[in-house]
Design goal:
- With 290 residues, the protein is mainly alpha-helical.
- It is 77% helix and 0% strand.
- It is built from 14 helices and no strands.
- It has helices at residues 2-12, 21-48, 52-58, 70-79, 81-111, 118-130, 133-146, 153-176, 181-189, 194-223, 226-231, 240-245, 255-275, 277-289.
- Helix 5 (81-111) runs antiparallel to helix 10 (194-223) and helix 10 crosses helix 14.
- The protein starts with a helix and ends with a helix.
- The mean pLDDT is 83.
């Protein structure tokens, strides 16, 4: 038995992914790519604690001469960051929740309900993901004004719930299209209705995918700029990306304050990602296994 195994291993030869120079080349490339991706964040962190005079004299790549925190205080007070932070938090959280629920319901009807023209419906959702926001902003703004949601965070919640759920529906409909019909038939034989099948049979299986979608929807909505800039016109309704844009003037730009603001604005999404990193990893792995 042992000789047979050794002979088979000898015929296969060395594992090229774990031995030899190829492994070190791949590792070196991965390190170089990681450093290239992290370098903008390192430069931002370096300049967030650098004074304007120090930045003008020594440039963006020099080490700060002193630990300068006035940029953080200036950004916080000038933009009323606490208000912007709360606006981004509740709108992004509601969009993530509502978009996942809407995606699941739509995908359940298309993938398992087998509605007529399901292929065309999935194609429509795919095309909807490709539309640029510049095409959508004028009709969205007009409709928001007519229904009384102008300059309201709820307009952002409704708009991005629909936009994000288009992607979520396309993804989940593709997954549920391959859902084992035997599980649904067994649940129907046991007397389960459509809602019970969704809650007790379908959702536990696609829950990892829904968790990944919720994380992505939250981060995507948090980073949105163009549509919130058009829809939200007063400072008390605006979000964090708009607060960052307000630091840039026509003729003057305080780079250290802008870097400090970018750092403060990035921290919530970074913390959110670190908290749900395990959920994201489990979701991607479960989806890959299925």
């Amino acid at each position: 038995m042992t000789s047979t195994t050794s002979a088979a291993a000898a015929r296969r030869g060395p594992d090229r992914y774990h031995r030899g120079p190829v492994r070190w080349v791949v590792l070196a490339l991965a390190v170089v790519i990681a450093l290239a991706m992290l370098s903008p964040f390192a430069i931002m962190l370096l300049n967030a604690f650098k004074g304007p005079a120090d930045y003008s004299a020594n440039g963006p790549l020099s080490w700060p001469e002193e630990f300068y925190t006035q940029g953080l205080a200036t950004f916080w007070s000038r933009t009323h960051f606490s208000i912007k932070f709360w606006n981004s938090l509740w709108t992004s959280g509601l969009v993530a929740l509502f978009a996942v629920v809407l995606s699941l319901l739509s995908a359940y009807a298309i993938g398992i309900g087998r509605v007529k023209g399901r292929v065309w419906l999935v194609g429509v959702f795919l095309i909807a993901n490709m539309l640029p926001q510049e095409v959508l902003v004028y009709p969205l703004f007009t409709m928001a004004q007519k229904v009384g949601l102008g300059n309201s965070g709820w307009s952002i919640v409704i708009i991005f719930t629909v936009i994000q759920s288009a992607f979520g529906t396309y993804l989940l409909a593709s997954v549920l299209g391959e859902f084992p019909a035997a599980l649904v038939e067994a649940a129907e034989i046991d007397g389960a209705n459509r809602w019970q099948i969704l809650v007790r049979v379908v959702f536990p299986i696609v829950r990892p995918t829904c968790s990944v979608l919720m994380i992505f929807f939250f981060i995507w909505t948090w980073n949105e700029f163009f549509i919130p800039l058009v829809m939200l016109t007063s400072p008390d309704t605006q979000t964090v990306p708009i607060a960052l844009a307000s630091l840039q003037g026509d003729r003057m730009l305080d780079v250290p304050t802008l870097n400090a603001g970018t750092l403060v604005s990035l921290l919530p999404t970074l913390v959110f990602f670190l908290i749900f990193q395990r959920t994201l990893t489990r979701g991607v792995t479960a989806g890959a296994v299925k």
